[in-house]
Amino acid sequence: MAQESSTPPHAAPVTATVLVVDDQRIVRELTARMLRRRGYTVLAAATADEALALDAEHSGTLELLLTDVVLPQQSGHELAAELATRRPGLRVLFVSGSQQHPSQAPSGVPSDFVGKPFTAEELLHRVSGLLDGVS
After folding, report:
1. Is residue 50 part of a domain?
2. Residues 6 or more apart in contact with residue 30 via CB below 8 angstroms
3. Is 112 helix (H, G, I), strand (E, B) or coil?
């Protein structure tokens, strides 16, 4: 994972909530930090079960799921499908060390893919693109 960059002074404020799911603690923490520095509200989980519990506890909106494709016990694809039924309008950014684009995004759910390692600029570009509807 590349070093983080600071938010450009001209960047528009953001208000979206992102659920970050990655079983690698360092990746999860760095990703969450990159997003928080840009102004996103971030929920973070190590497993699909933790993510589903966080979602159930979170009474606000959830605009984006950012999930590793490979997770213990349940894949990122399965997690995305389950959350998409709970959260209409959810968008999904899949992350993986494999450079293959995942083809199992839930039907009708806007999604994108970013390979590890990624830079803060690349991550933020993908996230804003999905949230702005230009993935």
Report:
1. yes
2. 1, 4
3. strand
Contact 66/90 with Cβ under 8 angstroms?
no
43: phi then psi, degrees, rounded to nearest 5: -110, 140
Task: Give the per-residue pLDDT at 83.
Answer: 96
Residue 15 Ramachandran class (φ > 0 left, ψ -120 to 50 alpha, else beta): alpha
Mean pLDDT, contiguous 10-residue spans, the chain (135 residues): 43 79 96 96 97 96 95 92 94 85 70 91 95 73
Pairwise CA distance, residues 69 & 15, whole Å: 25
Within a domain: 132: yes
Structure confidence at residue 103 (pLDDT) = 56
Domain count of the chain?
Answer: 1
Contact 92, 64 (CB under 8 A): yes
pLDDT of residue 98: 77
> Looking at the domain assignment, is residue 4 inside a domain?
no
Q: Is residue 78 in some structural domain?
A: yes
